[in-house]
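Dear Dr. L.,

I hope this message finds you well. Following up on our conversation about the binding site, I have prepared a predicted three-dimensional model of the protein together with iron/sulfur cluster. For your records, I am including the exact sequence and ligand specification that went into the calculation, followed by the structure tokens. Please feel free to forward this to your student if that is useful.
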Amino acid sequence: MSLEVEFCGIRFPNPFIVASSPPTTTGEMIARAFAAGWGGAVIKTVAPEGEVIENVAPRFAAMKADRKRIVGFENIELISERPLSIWEKECRILKDRYPDRVLIGSCMAGGADKAGWQELVVRLEDAGCDMVELNLGCPHGMPERGMGSVCSQNPEITGAITRWVKEVARKPFLVKLSPNVTEITVPGRAAARNGARALSAINTVNVLLGVDIDRFEPLPSVAGKTTYGGYSGAAVRPIALKAVSDLARHLPDVAISGVGGIATWRDAVEFLLSGAATVQVCTEVMLRGFGIIGPLQRGLERYMAEHGFERVSDLVGLALPRITDHSKLDFDHKPKAVIDASACIRCDKCYTACEDAAYQAIELPHPRMAPVKARGVPIVHLELCTGCSLCQHVCPVDCIKLQEVAGAPGEVKGSLGLSLGPDATYPGAARWDRPGGASGAPSIPAATSGDRLAANA
Ligand SMILES: Cc1cc2nc3c(=O)[nH]c(=O)nc-3n(C[C@H](O)[C@H](O)[C@H](O)COP(=O)(O)O)c2cc1C
Ligand code: SF4
Ligand code: SF4
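The resulting structure of the complex is given below.
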């Protein structure tokens, strides 16, 4: 078994790449990433000679779960402040010292600057970069100068830049796309039609992270003011997975480098299964350092061994045939919520969720707000449960499973002994006849019920 991958004809020792980002601010940092084991690295995006790049401070803001763990990260950082000439020197040193690692240049110029794009790509290739990534995705600062995300938000500009680069490139290049579009396949197709063999998705998602409610200052506050920035980290992973899978499904001949919210080997596997052939990481390296490459590699190796995969390419895109139109999903699949009574901690969260946001299919065998010691395990009325899964997601101990229940009724049959009208088969119809149901007063179910269809295991 091997973690080696081939991407556009280039051999990577493993599929893990440090994305163009603060961890690739200098050649020395990239050298440490390579020494730690990363298969490749994309240099921080470099601008045409003479373009002044100056950063503000602070330029980061974080979204935390429970005020602790960072789940989303906003930046208003610009591209590399260092000139192309410095990067040329450092790329040569890096290639000299780490010939087996894949060094990817990164650049951006204006949407009408053909000469700028061509010079950047040629000089990065000449400096030894194995590939070059065209950054058409940065959503802040650079768009005001006609660069960054505005270039992949307009498919004509995306196509033109790809064409210009194709004219001069002697090595493979990737077009890095912005997720801040309605359909990422539109710029993806424009790049592919004009000669791109590889795409990177995604760059950051344009957001306003938050507002300091005591100072009335949007964040990150730069001396009291902010600008919309780029969101990254775990929170953007679903957006990136959608983008990667969409591109892979519609452009099967294009290689995709997946990026956005990858923190663990599991996340990386999700991207590979969704069609990415390599994966890039930025925010997680910012938060935990280059050392995460060890667990990433070991986890992927273990996963491949467990599933009998010989090569990383064996798992690329395996989940794609299972993504389809909503109308093509199986409407006969009717699982029901089943509670594992032995694991239930009687928190009643499933009841509240089902009662106030689903189909009123869960009944409490005790009065609402009863002391925990006096509570029983909630009861699922199979004939009312539509299998929506909300209760499963709110259960803090993961003791609700959605499963087919043999003999479960598929529709409301009036088993609660209620006088159901002609709408009886619609979920929720029975509630109008329940005590308190129509009046809006909270209903307090009886402690026992002779005709209930409990699904509790
Ligand atoms: C602080 C910061 C700076 C970034 N700078 C660049 C850049 O110069 N060029 C680029 O192509 N992407 C840049 N990115 C975007 C990342 O390469 C990556 O596409 C994005 O952050 C999503 O991946 P992640 O969730 O692993 O961070 C930057 C991201 C962050 C957080
Ligand atoms: S799956 Fe939906 S309808 Fe069924 S019990 Fe749970 S929340 Fe209620
Ligand atoms: S949410 Fe889970 S633990 Fe809480 S009462 Fe429901 S089944 Fe039990």
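In brief: The chain has two domains: 5-322, 330-457.

With kind regards,
A. P.
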